[in-house]
Design goal:
Layout (H helix, E strand, L loop, with lengths): L1 H20 E2 L1 H8 L5 E4 L3 H4 L8 E2 L5 H8 L8 E4 L4 H12 L5 E4 L2 H7 L15 H9 L3 E7 L4 H17 L2 E6 L4 H6 L7 E6 L2 E7 L4 H8 L1
Parallel strand pairs: 1-5, 2-3, 2-4, 4-5, 6-7
Antiparallel strand pairs: 6-8, 8-9
Helix pairs in contact: 8-10
Protein backbone atom coordinates (compact mmCIF):
# COMPACT_ATOMS: atom_id res chain seq x y z
CA UNK A 1 0.00 0.00 0.00
CA UNK A 2 2.80 2.38 0.91
CA UNK A 3 4.58 1.60 -2.37
CA UNK A 4 1.41 2.32 -4.34
CA UNK A 5 0.94 5.61 -2.49
CA UNK A 6 4.57 6.59 -3.14
CA UNK A 7 4.21 5.78 -6.84
CA UNK A 8 1.06 7.87 -7.04
CA UNK A 9 2.80 10.80 -5.38
CA UNK A 10 5.75 10.58 -7.77
CA UNK A 11 3.41 10.49 -10.76
CA UNK A 12 1.51 13.51 -9.46
CA UNK A 13 4.77 15.42 -8.94
CA UNK A 14 5.84 14.61 -12.50
CA UNK A 15 2.53 15.80 -13.91
CA UNK A 16 2.71 19.01 -11.90
CA UNK A 17 6.25 19.63 -13.16
CA UNK A 18 5.12 19.11 -16.74
CA UNK A 19 2.16 21.46 -16.29
CA UNK A 20 4.47 24.20 -15.13
CA UNK A 21 6.25 24.08 -18.49
CA UNK A 22 3.25 23.45 -20.77
CA UNK A 23 0.90 26.44 -21.04
CA UNK A 24 -2.36 26.99 -22.94
CA UNK A 25 -2.46 28.95 -26.19
CA UNK A 26 -3.44 32.27 -24.58
CA UNK A 27 -0.57 32.15 -22.09
CA UNK A 28 1.81 30.96 -24.81
CA UNK A 29 0.84 33.90 -27.04
CA UNK A 30 1.31 36.34 -24.16
CA UNK A 31 4.73 34.89 -23.36
CA UNK A 32 5.78 35.29 -26.98
CA UNK A 33 5.55 39.06 -26.59
CA UNK A 34 8.51 39.15 -24.19
CA UNK A 35 11.87 40.39 -25.55
CA UNK A 36 14.47 37.86 -26.72
CA UNK A 37 11.96 35.04 -27.18
CA UNK A 38 13.04 32.27 -29.55
CA UNK A 39 10.03 30.57 -31.11
CA UNK A 40 10.57 27.01 -32.33
CA UNK A 41 8.27 24.82 -34.44
CA UNK A 42 9.34 21.16 -34.29
CA UNK A 43 6.95 19.88 -36.97
CA UNK A 44 8.01 18.72 -40.43
CA UNK A 45 8.70 21.23 -43.19
CA UNK A 46 5.52 20.09 -44.96
CA UNK A 47 3.44 20.78 -41.84
CA UNK A 48 5.21 24.10 -41.31
CA UNK A 49 4.26 25.23 -44.81
CA UNK A 50 0.57 24.70 -44.08
CA UNK A 51 0.84 27.64 -41.64
CA UNK A 52 2.87 28.48 -38.56
CA UNK A 53 3.20 31.07 -35.79
CA UNK A 54 4.67 34.43 -36.75
CA UNK A 55 8.51 34.49 -36.73
CA UNK A 56 8.82 30.81 -35.83
CA UNK A 57 11.96 28.86 -36.63
CA UNK A 58 11.58 25.25 -37.80
CA UNK A 59 13.51 22.12 -36.84
CA UNK A 60 11.91 18.73 -37.50
CA UNK A 61 12.13 16.68 -34.30
CA UNK A 62 11.52 13.47 -36.26
CA UNK A 63 14.77 14.08 -38.16
CA UNK A 64 17.29 14.10 -35.34
CA UNK A 65 20.28 15.25 -37.42
CA UNK A 66 18.31 18.25 -38.71
CA UNK A 67 16.90 19.03 -35.27
CA UNK A 68 20.26 19.00 -33.51
CA UNK A 69 22.00 20.92 -36.29
CA UNK A 70 19.43 23.72 -36.26
CA UNK A 71 18.86 24.20 -32.55
CA UNK A 72 22.58 24.63 -31.88
CA UNK A 73 22.12 28.15 -33.23
CA UNK A 74 19.63 29.01 -30.49
CA UNK A 75 20.84 30.86 -27.41
CA UNK A 76 20.60 28.50 -24.44
CA UNK A 77 20.36 31.39 -22.01
CA UNK A 78 17.25 32.92 -23.63
CA UNK A 79 13.68 31.58 -23.47
CA UNK A 80 12.59 29.06 -26.10
CA UNK A 81 8.86 28.78 -26.78
CA UNK A 82 8.24 25.47 -28.52
CA UNK A 83 5.26 23.85 -30.21
CA UNK A 84 4.18 21.10 -32.63
CA UNK A 85 0.81 19.92 -33.96
CA UNK A 86 -0.75 18.55 -30.77
CA UNK A 87 1.95 18.63 -28.08
CA UNK A 88 3.65 15.23 -28.24
CA UNK A 89 6.77 16.10 -30.21
CA UNK A 90 7.26 19.44 -28.47
CA UNK A 91 7.11 17.74 -25.07
CA UNK A 92 9.83 15.28 -26.07
CA UNK A 93 11.94 17.99 -27.71
CA UNK A 94 11.58 20.31 -24.73
CA UNK A 95 12.60 17.54 -22.34
CA UNK A 96 15.80 16.93 -24.33
CA UNK A 97 16.56 20.66 -24.49
CA UNK A 98 16.13 21.16 -20.75
CA UNK A 99 18.44 18.21 -20.09
CA UNK A 100 21.05 19.74 -22.39
CA UNK A 101 21.44 23.24 -21.06
CA UNK A 102 18.50 25.27 -22.38
CA UNK A 103 17.53 27.19 -19.29
CA UNK A 104 13.92 28.13 -20.07
CA UNK A 105 11.78 26.06 -22.43
CA UNK A 106 8.03 26.62 -22.55
CA UNK A 107 5.69 24.30 -24.47
CA UNK A 108 2.31 25.13 -25.95
CA UNK A 109 -0.32 22.78 -24.56
CA UNK A 110 -2.19 21.15 -27.43
CA UNK A 111 0.05 22.67 -30.12
CA UNK A 112 -1.25 24.15 -33.36
CA UNK A 113 -4.56 22.36 -32.95
CA UNK A 114 -5.21 24.19 -29.68
CA UNK A 115 -3.95 27.45 -31.19
CA UNK A 116 -6.48 27.21 -34.03
CA UNK A 117 -9.27 26.12 -31.71
CA UNK A 118 -8.62 29.30 -29.71
CA UNK A 119 -9.33 31.28 -32.89
CA UNK A 120 -5.74 32.40 -33.38
CA UNK A 121 -4.30 32.94 -36.84
CA UNK A 122 -1.34 31.25 -38.53
CA UNK A 123 0.96 32.80 -41.08
CA UNK A 124 3.46 31.72 -43.73
CA UNK A 125 1.37 29.42 -45.88
CA UNK A 126 3.51 28.64 -48.91
CA UNK A 127 1.97 30.30 -51.96
CA UNK A 128 2.79 31.13 -55.52
CA UNK A 129 4.71 29.19 -58.14
CA UNK A 130 8.21 27.82 -57.73
CA UNK A 131 11.20 29.60 -59.22
CA UNK A 132 11.58 27.85 -62.57
CA UNK A 133 14.86 26.27 -63.61
CA UNK A 134 15.10 28.42 -66.80
CA UNK A 135 14.52 31.60 -64.78
CA UNK A 136 17.15 30.52 -62.27
CA UNK A 137 19.68 29.72 -64.98
CA UNK A 138 19.04 33.09 -66.60
CA UNK A 139 19.54 34.85 -63.26
CA UNK A 140 22.88 33.21 -62.46
CA UNK A 141 24.25 33.79 -65.97
CA UNK A 142 23.41 37.49 -65.90
CA UNK A 143 26.26 38.94 -63.85
CA UNK A 144 30.01 38.58 -63.32
CA UNK A 145 29.65 37.44 -59.70
CA UNK A 146 26.38 35.93 -58.49
CA UNK A 147 25.70 34.57 -55.01
CA UNK A 148 22.91 32.01 -54.72
CA UNK A 149 21.44 31.83 -51.23
CA UNK A 150 19.36 28.68 -50.66
CA UNK A 151 17.60 29.47 -47.41
CA UNK A 152 14.38 30.08 -45.53
CA UNK A 153 13.11 32.47 -42.90
CA UNK A 154 12.28 29.52 -40.62
CA UNK A 155 15.81 28.07 -40.70
CA UNK A 156 17.90 29.09 -37.62
CA UNK A 157 21.33 29.09 -39.33
CA UNK A 158 19.80 31.00 -42.28
CA UNK A 159 18.67 33.70 -39.85
CA UNK A 160 22.17 33.79 -38.42
CA UNK A 161 23.62 34.27 -41.90
CA UNK A 162 21.39 37.21 -42.91
CA UNK A 163 23.73 40.03 -41.78
CA UNK A 164 26.79 38.24 -43.23
CA UNK A 165 25.09 37.82 -46.62
CA UNK A 166 23.94 41.42 -46.59
CA UNK A 167 27.47 42.64 -45.85
CA UNK A 168 29.28 40.55 -48.48
CA UNK A 169 26.74 41.44 -51.18
CA UNK A 170 27.24 45.13 -50.46
CA UNK A 171 31.01 44.88 -50.02
CA UNK A 172 31.67 42.90 -53.22
CA UNK A 173 28.71 44.29 -55.19
CA UNK A 174 27.36 40.81 -55.84
CA UNK A 175 24.12 39.93 -57.53
CA UNK A 176 22.04 37.94 -55.04
CA UNK A 177 19.67 35.18 -56.12
CA UNK A 178 17.45 33.78 -53.38
CA UNK A 179 16.15 30.22 -53.58
CA UNK A 180 13.32 29.42 -51.16
CA UNK A 181 14.15 26.09 -49.50
CA UNK A 182 10.52 25.64 -48.54
CA UNK A 183 9.19 25.99 -52.08
CA UNK A 184 11.80 25.99 -54.86
CA UNK A 185 12.50 22.26 -54.80
CA UNK A 186 13.03 21.93 -58.56
CA UNK A 187 15.88 24.43 -58.51
CA UNK A 188 17.34 22.87 -55.37
CA UNK A 189 17.38 19.47 -57.07
CA UNK A 190 18.89 20.91 -60.24
CA UNK A 191 21.86 22.39 -58.36
CA UNK A 192 22.05 19.53 -55.84
CA UNK A 193 21.36 21.75 -52.82
CA UNK A 194 20.22 19.32 -50.15
CA UNK A 195 19.49 21.59 -47.18
CA UNK A 196 19.41 25.23 -46.12
CA UNK A 197 21.51 27.20 -45.86
CA UNK A 198 23.54 26.43 -48.97
CA UNK A 199 25.57 29.13 -50.71
CA UNK A 200 26.78 28.86 -54.29
CA UNK A 201 28.99 31.37 -56.10
CA UNK A 202 28.81 31.75 -59.86
CA UNK A 203 31.38 33.63 -61.91
CA UNK A 204 30.46 34.47 -65.50
CA UNK A 205 27.63 31.94 -65.31
CA UNK A 206 29.68 29.03 -63.95
CA UNK A 207 29.73 27.63 -60.45
CA UNK A 208 33.10 28.26 -58.80
CA UNK A 209 32.42 27.64 -55.10
CA UNK A 210 29.81 26.35 -52.69
CA UNK A 211 29.31 25.57 -49.03
CA UNK A 212 26.44 24.11 -47.03
CA UNK A 213 25.90 25.60 -43.57
CA UNK A 214 27.19 28.72 -41.87
CA UNK A 215 29.85 30.69 -43.77
CA UNK A 216 32.11 33.36 -42.30
CA UNK A 217 32.71 36.71 -43.94
CA UNK A 218 36.34 35.74 -44.49
CA UNK A 219 35.33 32.53 -46.25
CA UNK A 220 33.17 34.53 -48.64
CA UNK A 221 35.95 37.04 -49.24
CA UNK A 222 38.47 34.29 -49.90
CA UNK A 223 36.15 32.62 -52.40
CA UNK A 224 35.61 35.83 -54.37
CA UNK A 225 39.28 36.81 -54.76
Amino acid sequence: MKKMLLAACLLLAALVGLAQNAVPADAFEKGMQQPDIQLLDVRTAKEFNTGHLQDALQADFTKKSEFFDRIKYLDKSKPVYIYCLSGGRSTAAAKWMRENGYTQVVEMEGGVIAWKQAGKALTGVAAGPQLSIPDFEKAVSNGKWVLVDVGATWCPPCRKMEPVVKQIVKEKQLKLVNVDAGKDTDVMNSINAKAPPTFVLYKDGKEVWRKEGVVTLEEFRSAIR
